[in-house]
Write a structure and sequence with these properties.
By secondary structure, this protein is an alpha+beta fold. It contains twelve helices and five strands.
């Protein structure tokens, strides 16, 4: 059985985040690191400290669903974080990543839509798009290797101009959405290459990435500034393809009557 470093890293990040004073665990012993001690987490989860240490070290041990649920409660995880923790605990080896192919029928549907729409793969590579999305984001003008939502958002001046004052909030949200997928693919050269490129090109990314933020997809609104125009508000949502669960369709619809 191989180790599980992503699980250990995530547990550690959430242990550091907890405030011992707020939990009534300050005590008199000086703390050399932020957050709770390992033995305090183990005690809150009612498991042995030795077992918890092995999990946090990414050692090749397994934990039951009940143990993972107890750890989620001990670490005060929210719903998205709890789901991520369970998936990490069940993580297994996967085949090396290969970029997906969009079925022709999906490509045809996307191109026929009047408002911005595009399809991404597991690594958030942009695989198909329509004319409205191209006008908004300029996918056709991008080099194929750079045609990736995270690369666009975190490494290009165009994205910062497009999102304006909302750029940091939206970029951090995207990283939190991508993190669960990465943690399932940690060690895969294609994913490691992407994270390294983002780390080298975006100062803000490094801090957000070290925080191990995770989130679940949800629909919402975005105000986008394209081609020097005043900001336009769009509602957006994403949908998983039946043909290949790795494919996701992103749809944008302009909300008229708003700036």
């Amino acid at each position: 059985m191989s180790g599980n470093k992503p699980l250990g890293d995530f547990l550690r990040s959430r242990r550091y985040r907890l405030d011992p004073v707020a939990l009534g665990l300050s005590g008199t012993r000086r703390r050399r690191t932020p957050g709770l001690r390992r033995e305090e987490v183990a005690d809150r989860a009612r498991i042995s400290c030795e077992w918890y240490v092995k999990l946090e070290q990414g050692r090749p041990v397994s934990a039951s669903a009940g143990t993972i649920a107890a750890l989620a409660r001990a670490l005060a995880l929210d719903a998205a974080e709890t789901a991520h923790l369970h998936k990490l605990a069940a993580r297994s080896s996967a085949e090396a990543f290969g970029q997906e192919t969009v079925p022709e029928i999906i490509n045809t549907i996307v191109k026929s839509l009047p408002e911005p729409a595009y399809v991404t793969g597991l690594r958030w590579d942009v695989l198909a798009w329509n004319a409205a999305a191209d006008e908004l984001f300029g996918f056709t003008s991008m080099d194929q290797r750079e045609r990736n939502i995270l690369r666009y958002m975190l490494t290009t001046p165009d994205a910062r101009a497009m999102f304006g004052r909302d750029w940091a909030q939206e970029a951090e949200r995207m990283i939190a959405l991508f993190r669960p997928t990465y943690d399932q693919r940690a060690g895969d050269p294609a994913f490691e290459e992407l994270v390294l490129a983002l780390s080298e090109a975006c100062d803000e990314f490094r801090g957000w990435w070290c925080s191990h933020l995770v989130a679940s997809p949800s629909a919402g609104t975005k105000t986008l500034h394209s081609s020097g125009r005043d900001g336009a508000t769009y509602v957006y949502a994403s949908f998983q393809a039946n043909d290949d669960p790795a494919l996701k369709l992103a749809l944008y619809t302009r909300r008229h009557g708003m700036p």
